[in-house]
Design goal:
single chain; 329 residues; alpha/beta; UDP-N-acetylmuramoyl-L-alanine:D-glutamate ligase; 8-stranded mixed sheet; 5-stranded mixed sheet; 13 helices; 13 strands; Ribokinase-like; Carboh/pur_kinase_PfkB_CS; kinase; Adenosine kinase; PfkB_dom
Length: 329
């Protein structure tokens, strides 16, 4: 019996959520709908411009969002990410544990906790300005391998494939998972991650992964194909289980090469797409660790994602724990 459903690893970032009008986004000169890495000075200038706007803080980072939504569904997990001994770092730990996820990585005495300013326009698109801060200094020594071995799945975000020490941590987590019989789940995170490290992602997917999460654009980037169907077939030949999201069209599930489509849920009012893919992964991981088959797991993932896009920010205001039978039937 495993003690944790999921052992998550990713960048630890404090999200600073700010609703803005399109006109302000254009005036500031940022391209809508994408994530841009910025330094602390640029991000500080953006926050000065946003002085007077309503802001909310959340513990974030892609894999962290997944872990929090997993706990909301009733799952258990522990998260590995790097923060600093500063105000944002203290907030991060408290917020993660308040959400139900264990976070015990010792903070760094140097540097600043990473932050992500998320600008959400009225059409629900989010534009992210990310300063990774101390999160990029995560090393393999930060991994609690005892907790990893007590987990059903390890879950690694593709955003970590950016620096030498974080790459080493990813590979060690995957290798130790395989040795301990822990299933490896990997999310491609973003098309730019795939394009920048395509050969590495191909190798990781083939050599280590039991389950891959991607959206259609990420799959097409890995497969170097313009067809989402062909891209899914390509990824499916590398990994036995693939979950590919396709926006409002729901998701595609590939299990040992057999592909099926799982429809999505109607959304009454689309407010913010932040964390939709992360929430889908949370629902799937909850399902797979609680006896659901892949299609039912994807259905629950679709439902969790459908709820998150009706919220501002990547955090659900409703509790989904224990509601799976009621909602899925």
């Amino acid at each position: 019996m495993k003690h944790y459903d999921v052992f998550g690893i990713g960048n630890a970032l404090v999200d600073i959520l700010v609703p803005v009008e399109d006109s302000l986004l254009q005036k500031m000169g940022w391209t809508k709908g994408i994530m841009t890495l910025v330094d602390s000075e640029v991000q500080g200038g953006v926050l000065v411009t946003l002085d007077g706007h309503k802001k909310e803080l959340r513990s974030g980072g892609s894999a962290a969002n997944t872990m929090i939504a997993l706990a909301n569904s009733g799952g258990t997990g522990t998260y590995t990410g790097k923060v600093s001994e500063d105000t944002y770092g203290e907030f991060y730990k408290q917020d993660m544990e308040k959400a139900g996820i264990l976070f015990e990585v010792p903070p760094s005495k140097e540097g600043h906790t990473g932050t992500c300013v998320i600008l959400t326009t009225p059409d629900a698109e989010r534009t992210m300005l990310t300063h990774l801060g101390i999160s990029t200094t995560l090393t393999k020594n930060d991994l609690d391998l005892d907790k990893l071995k007590k987990s059903s799945y390890s879950y690694v975000e593709g955003y970590l494939w950016d620096g030498p020490s974080t790459k080493e941590a990813c590979v060690l987590a995957m290798e130790e998972s395989k040795k301990a019989g822990v299933k490896v789940a990997f999310t491609f995170s973003d098309p730019f991650c795939v394009n920048r490290s395509r050969e590495d992602f191909l190798r990781l997917t083939k050599d280590y992964c039991d389950l891959v999460f991607c959206n259609a654009e990420e799959a097409k980037a890995l497969a170097a194909s313009e067809s989402k169907e062909e891209a899914l077939k390509f990824v499916s030949k590398l990994c036995p289980n693939v979950m590919m999201t396709d926006g409002s069209n729901g998701a595609y599930v590939s299990e040992n090469g057999t592909i099926s489509h799982v429809s999505g849920f109607a959304v009454q009012k689309l407010l913010d797409t932040t964390g939709a893919g992360d929430s889908f992964a949370a629902g799937v991981l909850y399902g797979l660790t609680h006896g659901f088959n892949p299609e039912r797991s994807a259905k629950w993932g679709n439902y969790v994602a459908s709820r998150i896009v009706q919220e501002i920010g990547p955090r659900l205001s409703v509790r989904l724990m224990g509601r799976q039978e009621e909602i899925l039937g």
